[in-house]
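Instructor's aside before we start: the two examples that follow are unrelated to each other. I chose them only because their records fit on one page, so don't look for a connection. First example below.
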Amino acid sequence: MKNFTQIVFILLISVGNVFSQQEKGITGNNNWLRNWTEFKPNQVDYGEPTQILTGNITADVTLKKGDIYLLLGSVFVTNNATLTIQPGTVIIGDYKTKGSLTISKGARIEAKGVMTDPIVFTSNRSVKRAGDWGGVIILGDAPINRYGSGSAASYYQNLNGADYANTNYGGDNEICNSGIMEYVRIEYAGKRISSDKYFSGLLLACVGRETSINNVMVSHSAGDSYLVWGGQVNLNRLVSYKSNGTDFKFKYGSNSKIKNSLAVRSPYISSPLGSRSLEVISFDKKEEFDFSNIKTNVKAVNLTLLNDSDSLESDIKMNLVKEAIYVGQDATFEMDKSVVSGFNPAVILDNGITVNQNSLENIAFTDMYFNNCKGNIFLENNTNNEDLENWYGNAAFFNVYSKSSNTETFIDLKNSRRPDYRLRINKIIASNEVDSELSFD
């Protein structure tokens, strides 16, 4: 780690003034969460289904606001068909049959809600719980770093022979367009498939960059909220609220950008498989992946990652709070102008990452606001983070460290109907001095 300070300063001094003036965390002159999000979906009565969706949709179909649709079993949109969903439409996933919706490779979804009339996917149980139904899966034709093409067949039960082809994903079309999801809510998804596997709220497998994913909220998912395998999809204004699994997970050569997005975690809700706000990895088993092709490369700008704990000190002592961000070996990650508040610690790097200049130039944290975290950036299973703190704590990165409570940090996070998670800039006492470990003794 010798000479890190001088090297970082030379690389970044020219852009320092720009970074230091930018707003951190989710942005907007107005609170963009208003009108279309729902933070207490268990109190909403969506009505009873009037139409059933089952089997394969092989021709263009429009779901209309006047009807309430029940996803019965595994529903596939195939044969290059387009599923159009009107603003305000409600689609209910069936609990008993693990209802799910899959947009197969070549097909499209046009789910374009509006701020005052979002599209809602939710549970059909009277008392709703995380994992009541499957989720939404979009399969595209963009690249992945696994050998051969992929299949999502393990997510489904009782597939017939013809349906296996509808579960395939992956190809060479970086710009493939699987449609649009805008002003959409996905509630209580993430049905358990096996002892170590769950549906995600929204799975994007090899989705290309012409696909539009904006203003989507996944709440109370038993699996990951957003799971991205390969592809080049860009994500904007996403919300993950109290997921059991990881909020935003990028794997298998995903080359994606995520911006202006929010994850709110609860210390009392977590998957036994491990849960984080953000995870960026290239592989599960290294021998199954082709690194001559692509590695996972994620750029995150203006994210707010928040652990919503009323007693952070106590929750950390009870081992209920984990790290916010995990970066794996052979992955490139850049995070800028973002807020990480209330975790233990803020970031963990895979222990296969060598702590030197070459490695850390591929993992950038700039103009960050680390607040109330018990430690900032560590190597996995290593309690000595002096080299990492020297690197990321250099003034040239413009990272800020604070010990403010959540109510002091955010504008109005206790408003149950219209919370505002934007940073309360003028009421924070912060510094760019590294505080590697807050005192919880």
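Example two begins here.
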Amino acid sequence: MLHITSLEDGLELFKALGSEIRVSIIRQLLANKGMNMNELAASLNITNGALTSHIKRLEDCGIISVSNESTGHGNEKRCSVHLDKILIEVEPESAYKNIYETDIKVGQYSDYQVCPTCGLATSEALIGEVDSTRYFSHPDRMKANILWFSRGFVEYIIPNFIPTSQKIDQIMISVELCSEAPGSNSVWPSDIHFYLNSTCLGYWTSPGDFGDERGLFTPNWWFRNWNQYGMLKLIVINNQGTFIDGLKISDVSLKQMKLDYRSPLKLKFAVPEDCAHVGGLTIFGSGFGNYNQDIKVSINYSPMNADNSDASEP
């Protein structure tokens, strides 16, 4: 997912999409799950030279990626679309002036309960043995850049360092996720649930566990028949409810939680064993997948009203 926070930031993207030939390029790449430059030029009946400028425009906007693939005749450039959605914020974020941001490493969970198939890895090597849950308590798990399990949960403590006497108005969580199938399977649905302080915010159904091509940042040592990348999801909890990629998934809101600078914040990702699609969970961090990021958290805050303040506070 590509998240554009203002219309001004999206100008180059809008220009790139304002071309029939570039829209056709995207459609061809999606239909064929990627193509090399020669195949793409032939399918569109244009020259490679003409195609190159269009590809660069789409690549600069983050819509497609270009990588080198080895063939019997040398290297060829392969183009792929890695976006599943483009989220554009039309309304300005001026209502939220104060922001606290933090990143959480994938292995920095505070609690867990997982079932095989499962495992963890840094960007350099596996941590312990795969399908052995005891390694989820290994000290090296703090360095993990990817983790996966078939059902269960991992829970993280979100650092709450907003200033004193402030209340929380919105929490945004950005994370790359997919299902967990043995090996990989692009059609392997999983109902991934999200919790804040043990309150279920809702769930998102991951369509599969993607291994059709190597993730942009997945290291070369990673096994080719294992999952390679996920989908970037944006979870937003505010006073209106809970949203994923701009779509409301529940009425659970911060208004009912009444969170402030003193509140503990516990974020849980879970695949319950009684949900409709028990397809597991993979969480990608920096050094894996298509987005090279850890779990990103942004907290918007504002001064507490006098009637919300604690009289015992100095």
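Helices lie at 11-17, 20-32, 37-44, 48-60, 254-257.
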